[in-house]
Each structure stands twice: as C-alpha cells, then as structure tokens.
Specification:
By secondary structure, this protein is α/β, with parallel strands linked by helices. It has 14 helices and twelve strands. The radius of gyration is 31 Å and the shape is globular. It is found in: Cell envelope.
Length: 381
C-alpha cells in the first residue's frame, strides 16, 4: 500500500525543515563542531594539535650516599640547573645506596612513570646494560653520568679519569721525592670498587706514573668504595709490611683515605705518610689543612652537574647536545659522545685558590672548630 501525502502536509514538512536546518547549523557552529558526513573532507582535514604536556619528567639515579658529593653537590646542582633552564621539567630522583638490584628496580619504576630522559650513575656499570636497553626500546634517552655505563646510552659526562689517577700518583711521587729516594720504603695502594669503571681508570692512570718509580708493598680493590673496608685493608697492609716501612698511601678517593688514615692513627703512627684522595670532600679538605691528608683531586662537580642538566634538556627535546666539545668513548656496546672535564690537585698550599675560591666550600666551614688554628697557619683565614 502506498502512503499518500497531501500537498498541505508536504508544504508543512518542507517549511519545518527550512526552519530547523539553520538552527542546527548555528548550534554546531556555536559548539565548535567539525563533524561532517563528507568522508573525503574528513580524510583531508588536518589532525588537531596535541596539547603540550604540563611537565617533562627527567629521571636521576645516583649510586650511593657514603661518598658525600652525591647528596651534597651532584643532586642539588643538577636540580637547580634544570629548574633554571626548564621550569616545566620535573626531576624524579632516587639513590641506590650502593645496591645494584635496588638501582635496577628504581630505573624500572622511572620508566613506568613516563620519564623522557634517564640520567644514571651506575652502581655496577655492566649490570645496568639491560635496563638501559629497555629504556631505549621505550624511546627514553639515556645519559651516563660520571661512570660510563654499558648499554646503548646516548651521552656521557665525566672527568678524564685516567688523568685523575695520574694527578694523584704524581702528587704522591713528588711528595715522596721531597723526603729522599722514593724507593726507600713501600707504598700501599687502596683503589676503588671493582664494579666501577672509573676506579679502573684511576688505577690505570696511577700505575702509569708509579710503576718503576716506587715499591708497591700491598694493593687492594675496595668493594663499594667503603671507608670501613679501606680501613681493614690498611690494617692488613700495616701488619704485612710494618708501619716503619710504609712511606706513602695511594687512596683513590677521600672516603677510602679516611679509612686508611683511621687505621694508621689506630696503629700509632707518629707521623702520617702522604695520603692521596679525590672529590675534595669537606672532611678531606679539613684533613689537608690539618696535615693529615696530603692532597685531594678537586673535580668541579657543579660544572659536571650543569653539563648533565643541559644534556638532559636537549635530549628531552630530541635535540643534539652542542654546548661542549665531545669525544667518542666506547663503552663495550657503542661509541658514546662524551664530555670529559678537567680536574685540579688540591694541597694545603692552594686550598684557598681552588675549592674556596670556587665556592665549593666556604672558608668558615672549612675552618670551624679545631681547624681554625691550622687555617690561620695556611693563610685561609
């Protein structure tokens, strides 16, 4: 059966449509609708721009707290610089307390949290290769900070670590020569952690200077850079060599130097032989002023942290880092563009012109308490 529509009804329908249509168009326009029944028009229309994220997440993983520099210098300098150049950047920070499995779990957590860049100073340079590969698979850029991590990292920033070892060894050798024949007795070498590639570089640089020039009585690689273990090692060396035969101690950093010095004090050394160090920790600088530690290596950690922050920001934007000269260093996986910074020797004679002049330590802090008299003698106050 056909449906018959009268002319009057048809006219009413057409009239209603003419009234409703403009209203619908106006409604769509007011709501900002871009809907269309034309499939070809929809296909050629430009995609709407994605809103920019409110924050750019940067992960920072540091290895331990026994070495004072990480919490006192590296972390605050990095965070301050990133806040300065990228107000929208958020630093997600964790410290591994010298535990490899803990650091790997921290890295996994940061990847879940949506970081764009992972800045990592590895507890174990080999063990982090897998997590770095996972980060790269998720399009997360990776910066190896201080220690050259294995795996497909994008950049690396550190110091010329073999040169650091040479600086330490040369300072020790010069001090020994002032007392006569550098082979008149024996030295003890207390190196850094065997899981830290930097420790191997310091050791290599030191041996390049010392081999053939001195008699090495005992040598140790110190797990976890532990001052307590360094103290045990030094006690073993004193027992094996005899305290009268020890004329110098090569220590790879200030923490191990503190352990070695504690052992020698406990053994009743009338005069401490020259002891090396590294990191220019406040306690080490005070020991130097007081004549208990011969030297330390001052690495401009603030500059290192600033370079790292600048690198991280460039990486977060998908841009190459171009502000400092880079050299290529192979980490066992690939050649990594690396910035290697220079370091300086600090002795009692130049404390004022190095760590204090740079603002790394304030003179009143170095010279507080029992160190005031020694500071006056050294011309610091």
């Amino acid at each position: 059966m056909k449906t018959i529509v009268s002319r009057t009804s048809l006219a009413r329908l057409v009239g209603s449509a003419l009234v409703i249509a403009p209203a619908l168009l106006a409604c769509n326009k007011d709501q900002g609708s871009s809907a269309s029944t034309n499939s070809s028009a929809a296909a050629t229309a430009p995609a709407p721009a994605k809103p920019e994220a409110d924050t750019i997440k940067i992960g920072l993983l540091l290895p331990e707290t026994k070495t004072a520099r990480y919490e006192a210098a590296d972390r605050p300098f990095f965070v301050a610089r990133l806040k300065e150049i990228c107000p929208k950047c958020e630093v997600l920070y964790q410290n591994a307390d010298q535990k490899t499995d803990k650091q790997q779990a921290q890295a996994e957590s940061l990847l879940i949290n949506g970081i764009k860049v992972l800045v990592i100073d590895p507890v174990d340079a080999k063990a982090v290769a897998g997590v770095i590969a996972k980060a790269k698979a998720q399009n997360v850029a990776v910066l190896a900070y201080e220690r050259l991590a294995q795996g497909p990292a994008d950049y690396h920033v550190s110091f010329d670590n073999e040169q650091v070892g040479r600086l330490q060894a040369q300072a020790l050798l010069d001090a020994l020569k002032k007392g006569g024949d550098p082979k008149r007795g024996k030295i003890v070498m207390i190196n850094g952690s065997p899981t830290d590639p930097n420790a191997g570089s310091y050791k290599k640089g030191a041996h390049a200077v010392l081999d053939g020039q001195v008699n090495i009585g005992m040598e140790y690689d110190t797990p976890d850079w532990s001052p307590d273990k360094a103290q045990d090692e030094m006690q073993q060396a004193i027992t094996a060599i005899g305290k009268k035969n020890i004329i110098g101690v090569y220590c790879a950093n200030d923490g191990t130097a503190s352990g070695a010095i504690a052992a020698m004090k406990g053994a009743g050394f009338a005069d401490l032989p020259p002891v090396t160090g590294q990191d220019a920790e406040l306690a080490a600088v005070q020991r130097i002023v007081a004549g208990q530690q011969y030297m330390t290596v001052y690495k401009a950690i603030k500059k290192e942290a600033i370079v790292a922050a600048d690198m991280a920001y460039a990486m977060a934007q998908g841009k190459p880092y171009t502000e400092q000269k880079t050299v290529m260093i192979n980490n066992g996986t690939k050649d990594i563009p690396s910035v290697l910074l220079a370091a300086d020797v600090v002795t009692k004679e130049n404390v004022k012109d190095t760590v204090i002049k740079d603002g790394f330590h304030a003179a009143p802090k170095v010279c507080e308490g029992t160190f005031a008299a020694a500071c006056k003698t050294a011309g610091i106050l």
